Amino acid sequence: MSTGAHEYFGGPHAEVNCIDRVDAEIKKEDLTLFCTLEPCNHTGKTPPCTEKIISSGIKKIVIGVVDPNPLVSGQGIRKLKEAGIDVKVGVLEEEIKSSNEFYFFKHENKRPFVTIKIAQTIDNYAADNNGKPIKITSEKSNHDVQNIRALHDVIVTGGNTLRNDNPTMNARVDFVANQPKRILLSSEAKADLKLNFFKDDHFQIIDDVDLKKVVQIIYKQNFNSILVEAGPKLVESFLKDGLCDRLISYQSPEPLGNEGISWSAVLNIIEKNGFNLTSSYTIDRDIKRVFIND
Ligand SMILES: NC(=O)c1ccc[n+]([C@@H]2O[C@H](COP(=O)([O-])OP(=O)(O)OC[C@H]3O[C@@H](n4cnc5c(N)ncnc54)[C@H](OP(=O)(O)O)[C@@H]3O)[C@@H](O)[C@H]2O)c1
Q1: What pLDDT, in 10s, does the model give residues 114-169?
Q2: Dihedrals φ, ψ of 165, to 5°?
Q3: Which residues lie below 8 Å from residue 119, measured CB to CB, with a gap of 6+?
């Protein structure tokens, strides 16, 4: 038996890794290849997987789901059948779709999936009134956020957060992860490139307040998912434009204690716009809530 995964962006696809790991002694004609997603039949960053499968001599393949990507959809299956391979399609479809939900969402909705993450004090503040960053959540919650970053292709933030907090906005995780691209939405033509956000060239500045256009600019770069980590102004704009599929809030048990920059407008939209609370649990002393926009 052999297994394979698509391990990193631009790297060999799972089918190729799996076939390459089969013991040379084993006759490929006797093997069945199980794929979650339909093998590709076009040259992208790597050659077509169908060619690899056909030339390997494998005669039987089970495919979980037809690839929704129009460059692939149906064409991989047709090519394999034409080569005389016994192809079975449609196994564990829901499980496969949910394990790759951002990819399926992008192709079905013609835009990336948008997650918004906020941290709030018990009295619903995001920051001090003077904009100074405040430590809201516990180390364990902060660690959880790093994992969420690693799951997304792009992190979007706003000009005020950048100027006030000087965030790094990379995914600091202890496993191999594709670092999300950092996108700043700001009207400033000349951002202060000494800030942490610009420490390597995996960033982009988009000077457009029309978020539908912004999301299309990101979609055209072929990204599946966006994580918005910004203050209440930009988060509110995303919500008002109907561009939030999931909102994750981390609430600390501590109050800010004085006036600050508030999440109230954001929380009102969540409450009034049919977002469903799908999970709520404690992380250390904080409560993590996940709301889905149905
Ligand atoms: N608790 C948390 O989870 C959390 C997370 C992030 C930040 N914060 C805090 O939030 C504070 C800043 O919040 P904020 O609400 O003032 O600012 P913000 O939402 O971070 O940024 C607003 C800025 O984003 C840019 N922008 C571009 N398109 C926009 C659009 N369609 N709608 C709104 N803004 C758009 C503009 O930048 P330009 O002005 O450059 O054009 C605008 O001034 C910071 O002090 C930070 O500490 C808290």
Answers
A1: 999 999 999 999 999 887 788 999 999 999 999 999 999 999 999 999 999 999 99
A2: -105, -20
A3: 126, 136, 137, 141, 249, 250, 251, 252
Using the atom order of ligand 1, give the atom closest to the CA of residue 185: 27
Is 25 a known active-site residue?
Answer: no
- Which residues are CB-contacts of 132 (< 8 A; sequence separation ≥ 6)? 164
231 lines ligand 1 (CB under 6 A): yes
- CATH class of segment(s) 102-293: alpha beta
Q: Whose CA is nearest to atom 21 of ligand 1?
A: 158
| pLDDT tens digits for range 213-248 | 999 999 999 999 999 999 999 999 999 999 999 999
Tokens 């970053």 correspond to 149
pTM over 0.85: yes
pLDDT for residue 189 is more than 80: no
Give CA–CA dist 294/273, Å, rounded. 9
**Ligand 1 centroid vs 228 CA: distance in angstroms?**
10
What average pLDDT does this structure show over 9-25? 92
In the reported structure, the alpha carbon of residue 289 is separated from the centroid of ligand 1 by a whole-number distance in angstroms of 22
Answer yes or no: is the C-beta of 233 below 6 A from any ligand 1 atom.
yes
Among the listed residues 15, 82, 94, 188, the single catalytic one is: 15
pLDDT tens, 122-136? 999 999 988 778 899
Atom of ligand 1 nearest to the CA of 157: 20
Ligand 1, pocket-test mutation among 115, 122, 138, 185, most atoms within 8 A of CB: 185
Mean pLDDT of the chain: 95
Distance 157 CA to ligand 1 centre (A): 7
The protein residue whose alpha carbon is closest to atom 13 in ligand 1 is 231
CB atoms within 10 A of CB 255: 12
User: 14-97, what's its fold?
Assistant: Cytidine Deaminase; domain 2 (3.40.140)
So where are the chain's domains? Answer: 14-97, 102-293
